[in-house]
Amino acid sequence: TAGLRYDFYSVEGTASTGAIERSDEFLNPKFTLAGPSDFWFQPYVTYAHTYRPPTPNEMFYGGAHGSPGGENPDLLPEESKGWEVGFNVKSNDLLRQGDRLRVKASYYDTDVENYVVMSAAQRFENVAGTTPISGFELGLDYDAGIAFASVSFTHAEADLPDSLLKVTQELPENILTLVGGVRLLDEKLTLGGRYRYVSESFLTDTFGTKNPIPDYHLIDAFASYEVREGIEISLRVENITDEVYTPAFGRVSTSFVPPFPSTPIQDGLGRTFYLSTQFQF
Fold it and tell me: How many Å apart are CA 124 and CA 77, to the nearest integer?
């Protein structure tokens, strides 16, 4: 199959630097060669161009209190070109009547132009050159009605821009997520748990120092009960062990006033409880 996507964005208004009026448009082709979708095993290969326009937060970031940070209305979109090759597997009635198994594995290799980073001036900027990103993804999902389980694994390798006075966060190489649970009382009650592992990553701060972000393990639990048709109560507990950790994709600290923060990224949440009710009409 082949496709062509047209994207357009525009920005108009007034900022502290004066009037802003800019727009851009892109044609993004995509080509996919795949096996038959009605067969249990489907290999595929895809080549695609994509682009990501800057978000309002990136273009009009206000900066930290007391810092000279500000807007960058000239921020360019990120553009990428890449390949993906992989396969899908689907099987029904594998271990018992009515169950289903889904597997997806893929390898990707992408080059990104105009990669966006936070600069020491407390504004987002483009980094010239190409940022190569490649990796492997594996997803497995099994559902037998009374029980379910899933596995998700990602391995990524990225040569992200790393220059003096640029806050550049590197992707963790490995992320693993395991989910499992059961459905009881005619599948009205669902009980389950989730395990997450994120490997070590790094952040180059505003002073050019490469700070390690340690790997971490998180365990969550969840439950839901269908009180009646259309009404469901849910309880979720995240980080049951109350582990102290620094999120790999956390928010960068913007303090420039001594004493500087001991870590460039804020710590993640400790043990947290969520209680919710859902109504459907």
Answer: 12
Q: Write down the residue that tokens 């890449």 correspond to.
A: 82
Number of neighbours of residue 38 by Cβ within 10 angstroms: 7
Q: In 3-state terms, what secondary structure has residue 58? A: helix
Predicted confidence at residue 258, as pLDDT, reads 38
For the stretch 214-258, pLDDT in tens is: 999 999 999 999 998 889 999 999 999 999 998 876 655 544 433
Question: What is the sign of the dihedral through the CA atoms of 117, 118, 119 and 124?
Answer: positive
Contact predicate 181/202, CB 8 Å: no
Considering Cα of 42, then 152, then 131, then 74, what sign does the dihedral take?
Answer: positive
Query: Residue 72, class by beta-carbon neighbours within 10 Å (0-12 exposed, 13-18 middle, 19+ buried)?
Result: buried
State the DSSP string of 132-183.
EEEEEEEEEEEE-SSEEEEEEEEEEEE-----TTEEEEPPPSEEEEEEEEEE
Q: How far is CA 82 from the centre of its chain?
A: 18
Q: Is residue 85 over pLDDT 60?
A: yes
**Amino acid type, 79:** E
CB 190 within 8 A of CB 224: yes
Q: What residues contact residue 98 under an 8 Å CB cut-off, 6+ apart?
A: 92, 144, 145
Encoded tokens for 105: 């594995």
CB 3 within 8 A of CB 47: no
- DSSP, res 57: H
260/97: higher pLDDT: 97
For residue 175, report the phi and psi dihedrals to the nearest 5 degrees: -135, 125
Compute the average pLDDT of residues 28-47. Answer: 94
pTM, rounded to two decimals:
0.79
* Length of the chain as a residue count: 281
Specify the pLDDT at position 237: 97
Instruction: For residue 230, count CB atoms less than 10 angstroms from its CB and return exposed for 0-12, middle for 13-18, buried for 19 or more.
Output: exposed
